[in-house]
Amino acid sequence: MQFSSAQARGKHPWLSGDRRQLYPHSLQFYLEPPTENISLVEFESLAIDRLKLLKTVENLGVSYVKNGDQYNSKLESELRKLKFPYKALTDDDYEARRKDHISHFILRLAYCQSEELRRWFLQQEMDLFRYRFSQLTDSLMQKFMEHVDLSFEALTARSLPSIQSDERLQPLLNHLSHSYVGPDYSVQKNTGKISLEQIDALSVKSFPLCMRQLHKALRDNHHLRHGGRMQYGLFLKGIGLTLEQALEFWKKEFIRGKVDADKFDKGYAYSIRHNYGKEGKRTDYTPYSCMKIIMSNPPSQGDYHGCPFRHSDPELLKQKLQSYKIPPSGITQILELVKGMHYQLACQKYFELTHDVDDIGFSLNHPNQYFTESQRLLSGGREPKKEVINSGNTQQRNNSQESMNSNSTLTSSNTTTDAELEGLEAYFTED
Ligand code: SF4
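That is the input. Now the predicted structure with iron/sulfur cluster docked in place:
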């Protein structure tokens, strides 16, 4: 594939035979788009690596003092791991510089498509550039400043019309800006390990806020609209509900509302079987990642799907967090992260506060990852800071807004539920 015209290619130092001329410095201002042909496979792999790098930059930027020792050493280790240039002094790192150059332009294309994406991309690239510039020696800084042309050129978005007509590239670019690079939670190692009776307690202890909100809405209204059924249904499948359990779970709840059993069997059961790949194209659908939930299909009035950190009014979010007994200082931190559009980091903070750990210890990308990590931690797979603030039972006792069904299940059989959860938690300590 090609990024620019044959005319531009004709001027390129590539043709001079000395590839070092192409990247005379380890640091780049990305003034010229790449002009070489690369395969779609390499295109995607370069883009995914840069996305991983920028997510690390985002994560470190809110966890550590920027350009402090810990920030710098963790960023250097990520650059090394992903094979991007990490030391300005190395001359012979052509492949790393090439990767830096091409991957930057691919993400530029993917992230220029909306104001929100643009801002996120610019922020992470600026932080990355600042770090790398600060690592240069004085003489290299001087050389770099002499080398670059600081004149401004209009944003990448202008080249979108021509890119959009390329049928191979556009789906890839759209996908990239929503892309998820973690494990596939449709692969079931835990199918059938959860009983329906455990779900109320689990929703309080181990569900991320998006799924806790959907569960509560389902219990309160005995119904969820399509977007909610998809998001929550696939999440439940990912935590281990079998098709038979899912049919029973949704049916029991829906027939408590306005849907009778016959209507459920004729209408809703089909889409549940569909989610499990038993109808239609028989695709085994994958639970949604955070990026997909955050970036696509925003909820409208009467919907409960989406990401509460992205889609809730900040005042409502604050009230919800207060009702879940999150301490005021924690709420302030979460709202600050939300204001800076760091939605997944806000969710990580929520995890830390509800599990009473100082450092979440992983980078959150998926609601099912949140669940698995929570179960691992609660089972003793990771050490909590002190006895876990019982985000489950304590909150459940104190929180009159939490699901009525949830309360009745727990107060009538706390011991049984805890014993059942123990077995489940033990299961999640296995890798
Ligand atoms: Fe759910 Fe992800 Fe949003 Fe957390 S960040 S609430 S897991 S969508």
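The mean pLDDT is 78.
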